[in-house]
Amino acid sequence: METQDLIPIQILCNQYKIPVSFINTLQEFQLIEIIVENEGFYIHNKQIKEVEKMIRLHYDLDINIEGVDAIYNLLKQVKSLKQEITMLHNRLRLYEDL
Amino acid sequence: MAYIDYYKTLGVSKTASEADIKKAYRKLARKHHPDLNPNDKLAEKKFKEINEANEVLSNPENRKKYDKYGEHWQHAEEYEKAKQQEQYQQNYQGSSGGYSEEDFSDFFGNMFGGRASTGSSRQVKFRGQDFNAELQLDLKDVYTSHKRTLTVNNKNIRITIPAGIENGQTIKIKGHGGKGVNGGPNGDLYIQFSVLNHSKFKRDKDNLYVTIDLDLYKALLGGEFMVDTFNGKVKLNIKPETQNGTQVKLKGKGFTKYKKEDQFGDLYITYQIKIPTDLSEKEKTLIKELQKLR
C-alpha cells in the first residue's frame, strides 16, 4: 500500500474537529477500517468520502452511531438493488420486442 | 422574487420557540438530507430550502429581521438607510419621488443573491458536493472508445468514453463536482450513461443477439447465407435440415468488451424459418407429393 494514500487519524480528527473516539467507534461498528503501520494509525483516503458522510449524519443530523450503522448498511443495499434493477432492465430489453 | 415562508418550510408557527425550530429542522433534514437520498434531485432541492429556512430562523437576529422585512431581511439595514434618505428628501426638498412597494422589490431583488448553505455551524473542511449527470449515447457510439466534450455547470470537460460501456453504467470524473467547503477538495462528477439501442441487435453485456429470417428451402437443403454483424457482413454456412429456432454462435462477433477495444463477445443468431405463402396450384401439388414420400 502506498503510504501517501494513508491519512493519520489525528490529522483527520483535527481537520474535521471531531474526537478520535468517534473514529474508533466507527471501527468498532466495522464501518471503517483503521490501518496500523509503523505504530501509527491511519485511514485510507478511499474511505474519506464515507467517513465524511458519517460525520455529517452524526454531527449535523444528530443520529447516533447505531443509527449511522443502520443507515449506512441500508444505503449499501439500496445501491446494490439499484444496480440490480439496471442490470435486469438491460436484460429485459432482450425480450421486449419479442 | 417570490416570497418564501420559512416558517411554512419548516412546518412551524410564527411563535415557535428556538427549540421547536431546531427540532423541526432536524426532523426534516433527516428526511431530505442528500446523504440519505442519493441522486434524488427533489430531496436535494427540499434540503436546500430547509437549510435556508433554518439559517434564518435559528438565528434570533436574522429571524427578527425576517419577521419584519420578509425575504429581503438580508438587506434590512440598506432598506432602513434608503428609507431615512427618502424621508430626508421629502422633509427638506419636498420631493415627490421615492420608493414605492415595487421599487422596494426591484431594489432588493437586484441585490439579493443565492447563498451557500452547509447546514453546519462547524467550520471544517468538507469535500464538495458530488454532481450527477446523464449522457445519452447510441449503441454504435460505444462500440469504440471516443472522446467527447461535455458542459457541466458552464465548464467544458473533455472525457474519454470507454468502449463497451453499458446502459445505466456510471463513471466517475474526479474533482469535477462542487467546490470544497472551507478549502476542502472538490467533489466528483458522476456520469450515468443511457445507451439507446436502435439497431436490430439485442445486447447483454458483450454478447449480441439477433434473429434472422431463413427461407424454407435454405433451411431444408442448407447453403450459404450472408448475415449482418455489428461491424459488417459475414458468410454463414447453413446446415441442411436446420430447425426453426436453432441458435448458432459466432465467436468474437459480438460487442466490444468494456475498456478492451480489441476483445469482443459473441454474436448469437437465431434462425426463424419463413414458410412460403400464396402457394400456386403447382406448388401445392408438388408439396403433397413430398408429403406422400414421408
UniProtKB/TrEMBL annotation, chain A:
Gene3D superfamilies linked to this entry: 1.10.1660.10
The name this protein goes by in its record: MerR HTH family regulatory protein
Pfam families associated with the record: MerR_2
UniProtKB/TrEMBL annotation, chain B:
Key words, A-Z: Chaperone, DNA-binding
An example Gene Ontology CC term for this record: cytoplasm
This protein's record includes keyword DNA-binding: yes
Residue ranges of domain J in the record: 5-70
Listed GO MF terms: DNA binding; unfolded protein binding
GO biological process: protein refolding
Pfam families in alphabetical order: DnaJ, DnaJ_C
Protein name in UniProt: Curved DNA-binding protein
The species this protein was found in: Flaviramulus basaltis
Keyword Nucleotide-binding carried by entry: no
Top-rank lineage group of the source organism: Bacteria
